[in-house]
Amino acid sequence: MSPTLKKILDTGERALKTAAQTFLALQIANPVFDVGGLHTDAAKKLSIAAIAAGWSALMSGFSLLLGNRETASALPAKADPATPS
User: Distance from first CA to last CA of the chain, Å, rounded?
Assistant: First the structure.
């Protein structure tokens, strides 16, 4: 697998996980806590999750400049468990 494809898959996985976590958090917390008055439908919650996913992808891109250039982690290569030893 090419390094570029690996980075894209790593970033995509992080963005999807962030979207799922955001959506589920809104689903669970919203009825209980009325989070910011967001008693809204699923489409609006998915929109909020998409914003979080986009932010995650953007941050993963910046992490490529800061940390291990093989993954979307901001950890230095020596501390990143994904770095081959």
Answer: 18
Per-residue pLDDT reduced to its tens digit, 8-21? 888 888 899 999 99
d(Cα 48, Cα 44) in Å, to the nearest integer?
Answer: 6
Name the 3-class secondary structure at 78: coil
Nearest to 57 by CA among 83, 19, 24, 23: 19
Q: Give the residue extent of every domain in the chain.
A: 1-15+40-80
Q: What pTM was estimated for this model as a whole?
A: 0.66
Which residues are CB-neighbours of 48 under 8 A, at least 6 positions away? 22, 23, 26, 38
Q: Please provide the size of the chain in residues.
A: 85
